[in-house]
């Protein structure tokens, strides 16, 4: 080869490399599509397949509980900025939106996902807000009773970070699907402010999550998801607002800090007032469908779900005091285990926590609780047991919560009590195959 032909070939190769590099840069720019501070959000912040190795896991989730009262027309002309806290980070994300309790189609004309600039605030990190698409389109219509999953969006999601999921709709839509016991402050604004990086337009605070029911992350940091499935004690009813001090939050912290522990995300699928066997009573719709009826939708279908941690049964005892039996509660819990095994999930179940001193407590109901716990501890219900009863009870009065763990209503724990619950879960119990039967 002559020097001239060699130079020509080198020049050609350099030209090809320049074109390839340009394509890569442009491709990454369109895939990331961040909203710069003060700039309009990009319309198609999506990617067909995440570029980095990993898998989808549920980073945050909540259970749709009911249609929000007094929202017959929904929130037309309003932006709703939901603040949620993810337990796992990744390089891409997608969002689940629900119209489960709607009675008419819900059209969302603008939906964004961003990383919050600070805990609990409405401001996004500049350059870390993306507009979501649905089958490549920025607008989506969700039929009544249905849900939708956004296209993946390339966004670097930090571990244990607050995220902002903002929706905007122009039109009346009917009752709003919501989760009333968020224990987190979210925000409302008039007009379309979904793409706002600064949160100054979001002047109205709200204690609810609306429409959003999940954020999945594409990650190599977590190999699966723990789904916490329960009632108000799992929902964190008396935990400090905005502090992420529910027991599933504390469990997620333990998993992140364990040097050799399983690498699992944790999501909270608790509903306050939820019962294992029966749907919510008409006067308490926010208590949601029964645990048995919502199991597949809220828990077993979560991306990456590997372990189910179950804490249900107290409300069946308290709300059905004349008819409830230990056999009925045990049978319901065993049905959950069988269904979880059919989906390949391992099941860790908790003993029922003390509620002596609360309104409605009687010696007969205490006997029901103790009998259920006896069967749970025998190993005939779950693959492994988290003894929440032993972790929380007062040694001098075992039918009651330890005073330091009693929020004051003699049923729900304090933040310290929620931490004690998380500490009662052996991290080694979260691993292992799901047996064929219990």
From TrEMBL:
Keywords: Hydrolase, Signal. Residues 228-420 form the SGNH hydrolase-type esterase domain. GO terms for molecular function: hydrolase activity. Gene3D superfamilies: SGNH hydrolase. Residues 1-22 form the signal peptide. InterPro entries: GDSL_Rv0518-like (IPR053140), SGNH_hydro (IPR013830), SGNH_hydro_sf (IPR036514). It holds the Pfam family Lipase_GDSL_2. The keyword Hydrolase applies. PANTHER family: GDSL-LIKE LIPASE/ACYLHYDROLASE, PUTATIVE (AFU_ORTHOLOGUE AFUA_2G00820)-RELATED, GDSL-LIKE LIPASE_ACYLHYDROLASE, PUTATIVE (AFU_ORTHOLOGUE AFUA_2G00820)-RELATED. This is SGNH/GDSL hydrolase family protein. It comes from Streptantibioticus parmotrematis.
């Amino acid at each position: 080869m002559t020097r001239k032909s060699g130079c020509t070939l080198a020049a050609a190769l350099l030209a090809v490399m320049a074109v390839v590099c340009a394509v890569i840069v442009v491709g990454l720019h369109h895939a990331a599509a961040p909203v710069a501070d003060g700039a309009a959000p990009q319309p198609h912040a999506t990617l067909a397949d995440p570029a980095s190795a990993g898998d989808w896991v549920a980073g945050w989730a909540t259970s749709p509980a009911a249609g929000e009262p007094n929202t017959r027309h929904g929130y037309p002309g309003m932006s709703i900025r939901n603040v949620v806290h993810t337990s796992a980070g990744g390089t891409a994300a997608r969002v689940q939106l629900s119209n489960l309790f709607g009675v008419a189609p819900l059209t969302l004309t603008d939906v964004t996902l961003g990383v919050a600039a600070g805990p609990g605030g409405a401001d996004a990190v500049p350059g870390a807000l993306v507009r979501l698409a649905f089958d490549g389109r920025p607008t989506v219509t969700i039929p009544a009773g249905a849900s939708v999953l956004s296209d993946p969006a390339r966004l670097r999601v930090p571990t244990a970070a607050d995220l902002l999921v903002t929706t905007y709709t122009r039109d009346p839509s009917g009752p709003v699907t919501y989760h009333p016991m968020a224990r987190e402050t979210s925000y409302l604004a008039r007009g379309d402010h979904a793409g706002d990086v600064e949160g100054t337009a979001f002047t109205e605070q709200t204690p609810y999550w609306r429409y959003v029911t999940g954020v999945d992350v594409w990650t190599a940091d977590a190999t699966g998801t723990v789904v916490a499935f329960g009632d108000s004690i799992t929902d964190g009813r008396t935990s400090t607002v905005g502090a992420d001090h529910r027991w599933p939050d504390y469990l997620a912290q333990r998993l992140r800090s364990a040097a050799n522990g399983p690498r699992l995300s944790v999501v909270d699928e608790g509903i306050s007032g939820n019962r294992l066997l029966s749907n919510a009573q008409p006067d308490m719709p926010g208590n949601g469908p029964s645990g048995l009826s919502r199991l597949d939708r809220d828990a077993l279908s979560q991306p990456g779900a590997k372990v189910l941690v179950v804490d249900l049964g107290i409300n069946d005892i308290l709300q059905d005091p004349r008819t409830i039996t230990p056999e009925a509660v045990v049978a319901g819990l065993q049905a959950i285990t069988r269904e979880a095994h059919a989906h390949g999930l391992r099941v860790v179940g908790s003993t029922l926590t003390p509620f002596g001193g609360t309104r409605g407590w009687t010696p007969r109901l205490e006997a029901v609780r103790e009998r259920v716990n006896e069967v749970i501890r025998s190993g005939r219900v779950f693959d492994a047991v988290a003894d929440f009863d032993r972790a929380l009870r007062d040694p001098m009065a075992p039918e009651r919560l330890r005073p330091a763990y009693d929020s004051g209503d003699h049923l729900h724990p304090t933040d310290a009590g929620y931490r004690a619950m998380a500490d009662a879960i052996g991290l080694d119990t979260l691993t292992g195959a799901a047996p064929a039967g219990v």
